[in-house]
Structures are given as C-alpha cells and as structure tokens.
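Weekly structure sync, notes
Attendees: PL (lead), two postdocs, one rotation student
Agenda item 3: pending single-chain targets
PL asked that the sequence for the first pending target be pasted directly into the notes so everyone works from the same version. It is reproduced below exactly as submitted, 689 residues in total.
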Amino acid sequence: MSWTDPETKSTGNLITAAYWNQMLGPSGNQVLTAPGVFTTAGDIIYGTGDNATTRLASSGGGGKFLQMNGGATAPAWVTALTSLVADTTPQLGGFLDANGNYIQMQKGGDIASASPTVIDTDGDYFSVTGTTNFSAFTVAADRHFFLEFAGVLTITHGAGTIDLPGGANITTAASDVGEFVSTAANVVTCVNYTRASGKAVIETVTSVSGSTGAVADGDIDHDSLANFAANEHYTQANITTIGTVTSGTISTGAVIDDPTMTQGSDATGDVYYRSAAGKLTRLATGADGTVLTSTGAGAVPAFEAVADDAGIRNDIATLALHTAIADNKAAYNLSNAFIDQFEDDSGIDAESTTDRHASEYVATEGGAADTDVKLLLHMDGTNGTYNFVDSSPSAHTMTRDGTPTHHTAEKKFGASSATFDGSGDTVHTSSTHADFTFGTGDFTIEGWFYWTPAVTHDGQRFFTGGTPDSGEWSCYGNDANKSNIYAFGSGPFTQTADTSTWNHYAWVRESGSLAMYRNGTEMGSSPYANTTDFSAAGGFALGRYGAGDGWNGLIDEVRICRSAKYSANFTPAATAFDPGGIVSSGNFTSATQTASGSVSTMGIVVLYKNETGTATLNTDLVAEVSANGGTNYASATLVAGGTFSTGINIAAVSGVSVTAGTAPKYKISFANQSWLTKHTQVHGVALLY
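Predicted structure, written out during the meeting:
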C-alpha cells in the first residue's frame, strides 16, 4: 500500500490511533480504519474486508508459524504445519531425521496380473492376483514397490524391461514377495525376491552326500565324487539306477541295458538305437521323405527312400494293354486306371485333324499307307502357268485341255489354285489307270471348290471318271442354282449353294453307302446305298464333261484315296495334305473318367509306332494329363520304355503333379508329321490316377 506520512506520530514501536487515521492514500483519501494501537511487538494486522482491519496479537512464543486458512477465514499462529500439499516439490536441506518415529508404508489395492502388469499409485505394497505370466511393467520412474504374489505365474527376465536376479525367469508361488525399483518409466529391477518356502531364487549346491570336497564355489568337481572314477565319465560299474535322462549329453561309448530314456538328440529327427555291443548310439536323421527301416536282427537300422511303385503300376498298365489287345477290348477302367487300345471310338472324346483307323490306331488325318493315296493335286505354281503335278506316290502325269492355269490371286492353300473357264477346260490323267478302278470298294474323293456366281447353267462337272469326254462316273450340279448334286449315279445331294467362297466337298463310299459332305457336314439326303461296280479301266478328269458343262471357277487341293476317310461329320484339314494323306499336326483327347477320390498326381503309358521315320518324344509326340476334366492340363514328359510288341514302342511317365480334381483325362498331340518322312501312330494308352 502506498500512503502519505504527514508527520511522524509514533511512540516506540506503536502507532497511535490518531496517526493510523491519518494514513492516506495517494489521493489523500483515508485507506484503513484504525483498529486501535499495536500493543505488542510482533503484532500483525490483517484485512477483514470493507476497508476494515483487525489486529492479530503476536504468537506469544517462538517456533510458531502464521498459517493462512484461505477464503474469509482469519489467519492464525500454529505450532506446526499440517500439510505440504501445496508444495509439490518439498526438499530437505540435509538428512531427514525421523526423530525416533518412522516413515509409514502404504498398502495399495490388489493388482491383477497382466502383461504388462500395471503398478498403481495408491500405495507401495501390493498383492498380485491371478496367474497371467508377464514380462513387463507399466510404472512411472523412481518408484520403489513391493509385490506379494497370490499364485503361480512366470515373470520373464528381459534387459530393459524386468531385470531379474541371475538373469533367470522366476516362477512365483503363493506368498512370495518381490522388491522392485523402477529406474526409468517401465524399466524395473528386482532388488530382492523372497520365496515363501525360504529357498533362494537361484540355488547353489554346497555339498554332495558322501563326497567330501566335491563342491567348490557352488560347482561339482566330477573327479571328487565318490562313485565315479577320476578323469572318467559315467561308467557301467558306477551307474546303480537307470532312470530318465531329461537333459545333458550322453557321450559316445555310454553303455546301458534296456534303456528307457527321453533324450534331446544332436539334431531334430535323430534317433538312438542299441548297438550289437549294447551301446546307445545316435543315428542321424534321414533325408525328407525317407523311412527308418530295420535291416535285420543285430544289424544297424537305416533311413531309406520309400519304395516307388510307379514302375509296378506302369507294368500293370502295360499288361492291361496286352490283355485289351489280345481280347479286342474296347476302352475300360481299372480301379485307378483307364485303358484304351482303340478297338472303337468309345474312349475318345474329341479329335482335331486326327482319326482312329480301322487298324486300331490314332494318327493325324488320313494316316494312310503309301498304297492308299492315288492322286494329290496341290495346284501350286506360278500365276498364268499350267504345270499341274500329282504329289501322290503314283505320280500321275497330268495333262490339260483348254486353258486351265495357276491362279495366285485366290487360293485355299499354298501358292495358287487352278482356274477353269467352264468351256472345255480340264486337267486329267491318262485315259486308263487301275488307281481309279474302284470296283465295289471304298474310296474318298475330296477337294476345295470355288463357284463363280455369274455362271447359271446346270450340269457343271466337278469331275469325271473314265475318259475326259465319256466318263463311267462323275459328279455334277443338275440345276442353275447348284442346289442338287448327283454323283456316281446317286442323288440328289441337296444344299444351299454358297458361291464366291471356298467350300470343301468330299465324296465317301464306305461299305456300300455313298455320302457327300460339304465343309465336313453331311449334305441333305445323304447317304445313298451305292454298290455299283466301277471296274472298267479309266482315268480321272477335273472340270469337264464333253465340250460343255465344265467347271467355271477355281479348284484347289484335290485328293483321291482308296479308303473311306470319313464316316461321320468332320472338320476339314486346315493345311494342305501331305503326299501320304496326313497333315503335319493334330491332337485327340480321351473321354473323361471319374476317380474315386481327389487326384493330384497322375501317370500315363503310351504305345506308339513309327510307321515312317522316328518320332522324338515330347516334340513330335506329346502327352498331357488333367484331373479336372481338361480345364488344366499338365505336361507329361514321356520316357522311352522299351518294346511292347513288334514295331510297337512304350513311352511312359509317372508322378506328374496336376491341379487336383476327380475327372481324369489325357491329351495326345502330334507335330512334324509327314507320311513319307515321319508318320507316328498311337496304338494304345493307359491313364494312371
């Protein structure tokens, strides 16, 4: 307070009331109301509100403290402080003297064991309930606390978390007490641990009964043990009781009788066996998948590979194929195998430019012997020229009449086709040849034909047999729209004409039945019974019958065979024919089988014949297997397996991993096939699953 002292009005240490009333503020206003004069040295005045003051007499004795009581309560002299709450960091100026008294410890509420275990702040001695193991505390730094455990749990030692005596984990027991100090937040050291049993946390051996001097500094001196010879390990003579070894190392040469033991081996999977000398001997674990096999009485056991039954299964499958061939059996099943020697088509699901032949094999389309293909005209040549070549083994000399020429602007395969003007153009063989004397037998004539739409007259000849002008047999369209076709005295074969594009036509006589196909599909009214005997000697001519009614358009890839190549609808070959009547590639798949359980490993045995040349396995002849109906195929790498019978070879593979399923099937593919250089036939298949 600032006030004006107009004059000194005092007597000793007292201020008179008159002077008190003259205490003025800076503006000359009276600030306080006099309570009366101070009467004793050490008196205190204090405000009571509303500019009033009150005198507080001196303490009347030393060692008292003026205690402020807050609010409207008057201060008072006290003999001692009752609380240091207001001072959050009280400090001592020296050592704390308890003056004969003690500092009280506080038991906090029970703490439930947890990981981490949380140390509360309501005391420094806690009971820990529960049996949850823990390896950490949640606690503030600089705490000193005690824990009494109510049950069994494990405290895990860890540097930087809980430092335990000896660096070893502690398993508690009921009433055990541990003393702990947190040197930093959540970093705790156990400074003392007292077991309820009175035993030390880490026990030290101090003596061995009957063996004076056997213990030094807590360690056992082996050579001082009474029951063991110096400088030796356990000996048979000194072992008096056989029990269970739970840890440690059994040295080489240890001998025991009829051991019953649990022993940590040198490596996972090692085993111990009794040797002929009665010694316990370690046998190193075997390779993955091997089994422990007894090698006879008194002999050392050994880890050996599991017997592979793949060879046995392949032999059984091969034997089944022998039986199927000998008995002319159609495709059939064993319990875990499918056998097919192609007695019929029942075991085949689909064929792509392949065919099952009456001789009971599958090959690429045609698959004929060298006597089967009688004429093969590729029609390849330089545009405008007319060098027409027969590529069949017969190598007929081809002659042209009129002006048929090679045409490169429009062709089906190769370099060119042949163009005919419909007015006397023809390409023909000599007038007589036995190749075209069909008699009453089977035959196939096929080729690719391109009609010119501007030509509307009927009678256009595809071909004629015999002499060019007076054939014994022929094929022709009998109306302007070419919707009715007659061939070999049979017909009509009906169609909806498709001009200005290539169409594949095939005429097939098989067992007295004549069928006509367009683009692989049997035409209307087909087949017709036809047993006509075409025995008269003659030749073959394309495109003309007499001087008129010739073919007007293009012709390509014409083939004549002395066998029935197609017995049902088919897909025409996508490439030019081989001179032997086969195409270079193709495949076929088996009928899907049903397995008794899920299949993930398969095998296959293939019987094949090199009709010409030598097939390279897994290149020219490829096998694939599937367990899910062909959705996923796995490559089956074939390995040559010797000879099945004269000319027939074996190729096999086992242990092929496949996408698991219950619908086994196989796929066989051919490549690089050529009748004159490499013609591969598949004569039987055994699918193993």
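Discussion points:
- The CA atoms of residues 529 and 597 lie 49 Å apart.
- The first strand starts at residue 10 and ends at 11.
Action: rotation student to compare against the earlier draft before next sync.
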